[in-house]
Each structure stands twice: as C-alpha cells, then as structure tokens.
Specification:
Blueprint lengths: L6 H7 L8 H7 L11 H11 L5 E5 L6 H9 L2 H6 L1 E6 H4 L7 H18 L6 H12 L2 H9 L7 H15 L1 H11 L3 H15 L5 E6 L6 H10 L2 H4 L4 E5 L10 H7 L4 E2 L14 H14 L7 H11 L3 H17 L7 H10 L9 H13 L10 H7 L3 E5 L3 E5 L1 H6 L1 H8 L1
Parallel strand pairs: 1-4, 1-5, 2-3, 3-4
Antiparallel strand pairs: 6-7
Helix pairs in contact: 1-18, 7-10, 7-12, 8-12, 10-11, 16-17, 17-18, 17-19, 18-19
C-alpha cells in the first residue's frame, strides 16, 4: 500500500472505524505498546500454541487502543494459521449489542463453527448433523421459519445457520421467542456444539475469537462473564473473548479473572508522565503511525504534536483527529494540516461530552487531581466515565489514571455552567 500523497488520501487512509487488516496491516502497522509491553503480542500468542487444553482467554483495553488490529494480526500469523482453524467474528455483525443475551451468543457460535467447517470442506458426521437438526426442531419458532421457507432435509442446517444471525440481530420478536424456547435446552446445545467440535478437530484444532464483546453495556458484560459464563467454559476449544475494560473495576472482577487464563490488556500509549511531563517515546510512536501512512509534508510538526497531545495516547482518537483535521484543511484549500486546523477539530469535539452531569464533573476533578479512579459502592459513575473514554489509564512504573485531554481542553465552560 502506498502512503497518502495529499490530504484527500490522508482523510481516507486515517479511518478510525476501520482496523488494519490485509495489505493495510502489512504496510501501516505500528506496535502501539512497544515501549510499555514490547512482548505483548508474544504473550498473547504463546499460550495458544503451548497449551494442550481448551483454555479461555480475555483481551481488553480502552476503545480504540488497537484490539481489533491486534486480533487481525494474530489471526493471520503464520504459526496460528498453521496450527488452528480460526473462527473469528464480531458480535456487532450478528447480534444486537444493546439487547444481548448469552443464549444468542451460543447459537451464533454454533453457526459460526458449522459455517467455517463447511467453508474449509471439513466433514461433520451425519449422526451429529441429524442430532442438531432434531434439536432445532424442538425450537418451534425455528421450525416454523424453516417450513415457511420451504426448506427440506439435507439443506436445513445450511438455511438455519445462514439465517440465525439476521433473526437474532434484526427480528425482535423472533429473538425473544428463541431465547424463551432454548432456556431449558442450553445444555443440549453445548453438547451438540462439542460434538461438532470433536469432528472438526480431528482435522484441525479450532481457535474461536469473539470480537466486540467490549462494546457491551456494563450490566450485560457482568451478566455474561459473571453469571452466565459456564456454558462457554464447557466448549472444547480455545476461545479469546474481548471484554469491556471498565469491567475490571467491578467488585466481581476478582472472581471473573480467576475463571480465565491471565487477561491480556493492550495499554494506551503513554504520552506524558503522571506529573504531566511529555514522554518523548510516546510521541515518537504516534508520529510513526502518521508517517507510516502519509508523506511528512502533509502535516506541520506543531499540528502533529497537537494531534498526539489531544488524543491522550488513544490510537482511535489520534486517527480521528488527523482525519477530521485533514478535512478542515481541505475546506480551507490548504495542502497540509496546520495547528489551527487541529484546534478547530478539538473544539468541535466538545459536543462529545455534552452528557456530562455535575456528578461526572466532580469525579473528573478528583481523578485529575489525584490521578486515581476510585469506584464507590453502588455507583457506576467511574465505570461509565472509563467506558466513554473520559478517564484514561496509563502504565509506567505504576498504573495511574487521568482525564482525557479533550475534556481538559473543552470542559471548563461546562464546569462554569454547572457551577452557576
């Protein structure tokens, strides 16, 4: 892939909604954690190749820290591809994140495993497929939909597993009916998934990678990882679950973390010390992210430093600020991004924090002053502020917290309004 040669190409190559994959990953990847955790990728990869058990792993970090890019990198790693049939999917593509139920996820996992085996031309024995079909016949709503679709035996599972994602994601009444009907049949579903896995893994072990579970609301995440994780732990394959970073501040985290192998946390890039001093290595890493994708004559040095400063070390926000600044500069008929373009974007991002209440502001003041985030019993305020990237966590000799610099720049008028 070629670097951007003009601002239009900068705008398109710096797309915050698209993680690096394929040729983009090969050309533009920069390890964001190279200073703090230089062996993080190996720490994630090694236990997958070493362990002989169907271990379950957790991966997290702030939104936009690069989780999806790291998972793309992992799943295309030659050692991983050689040793596993990788079944990777995003719950956002097949489920309603804001109406999440663990039973939906189990069904989707069943479909993803089946479809992956079919694509790889891996045979599943007829007895197993017949038993799964009989199980689906016990779900009246699924049975009705296959009949209405005039689906005959032999292609019935193909039809069900092709449609299950759209039924669960889009059709609210279908989703609720399926949940109701399989409530007492979860153990049978797990049993049938494991029978499929046994057949498939005679050819090649499966690595299941579930993305975007970190997008779940706090209550849904706790329901999954604390209350309803047992069926997933019973699946006889290795699984990587993403999870919301704020979940680590739940009082149930100590129990959750002991259920899995050691969680892997992708850190933000530390661009300043706890005392506020600029951390040069952090600026170098983020500058490299820009210069890997674009010619250096497309941004002024002062403008790039401002993009880094106001990103707070969050790669997603850095990419977003660069992209939007390129657009502002183009509207002004410029040929490069300058400092005033970046500041215009930063000011416009004030609306991102219009939801902040007086309680939020008070907590942000405490974090800004003490560089610590303390969760009070019965309150979700700190977790909500972390989930919305208002509060960021950094790792140096010791972990510490700070307020996102965009808020630090923009929030004073909000504070004045509240205090009046």
């Amino acid at each position: 892939m070629e670097k951007a040669k003009n601002l239009k190409e900068v705008y398109n190559l710096f797309d915050p909604m698209t993680p690096l994959k394929g040729d983009y990953l090969k050309s533009f990847y920069v390890p964001p954690y190279s200073e703090i955790r230089p062996r993080l990728f190996e720490e994630l990869k090694s236990p997958l190749l070493t362990s002989e058990n169907p271990d379950k792993f957790l991966l997290s970090g702030y939104k936009g820290c690069g989780k999806s890019t790291e998972l793309n990198r992992l799943c295309t790693d030659e050692d991983i591809k050689k040793n596993f049939l990788v079944v990777k999917f995003s719950i956002k593509e097949v489920l309603d994140v804001f109406d999440f139920d663990y039973k939906d996820l189990l069904l989707v996992i069943s479909a993803q495993i089946y479809n992956s085996a079919k694509n790889e031309k891996i045979k599943i024995t007829k007895d197993v497929l017949n038993d799964i079909e009989r199980w689906t016949d016990k779900i009246e709503i699924i049975k009705t939909k296959t009949k209405s679709g005039e689906v005959e035996g032999g292609v019935k599972l193909d039809f069900i597993y092709a449609k299950i994602g759209s039924w669960l994601k889009v059709e609210d009444s279908t989703r609720k009916e399926i949940r109701k009907e399989i409530k007492q049949k979860v153990s049978d579903l797990v049993y049938n998934i494991n029978r499929m896995l046994a057949d498939i893994q005679n050819s090649k072990p499966i690595l299941l990678v579930i993305e975007d579970l970190d997008k779940l609301p706090s209550d849904s995440a706790i329901e999954l990882f604390y209350s309803n994780i047992s069926p997933f732990m019973q699946l006889n394959c290795k699984i990587i679950f993403t999870f919301p970073f704020a979940l680590m501040l739940s009082h149930k985290w100590s129990i959750i973390s002991r259920t899995f192998k050691k969680p892997t946390i992708i850190p933000n890039i530390t661009i300043h010390t706890k005392s506020g001093k600029v951390r040069e290595r952090g600026y170098e890493i983020m500058s490299e992210i820009f210069y890997k994708r674009a010619n250096d004559n497309l941004i002024a040095k002062e403008a790039l430093d401002k993009c880094i400063e106001y990103s707070g070390g969050v790669v997603f926000d850095f990419i977003r600020i660069v992209s939007n600044s390129a657009n502002v500069a183009m509207v002004k008929r410029k040929e490069m991004i300058e400092e005033d373009d970046v500041l215009e974007v930063v000011i416009s991002m004030r609306d991102d924090y219009a939801f902040l209440t007086k309680e939020h502001i008070e907590k942000l003041k405490e974090v800004y002053k003490n560089k610590a985030a303390i969760v009070e019993e019965g309150s979700n305020t700190i977790r909500d502020l972390i989930a919305s990237l208002c509060i960021l966590k950094y790792y140096n000799a010791e972990p510490w917290y700070d307020v996102h610099p965009i808020i630090e720049h923009n929030v004073n008028p909000i504070i004045e309004i509240i205090e009046k």
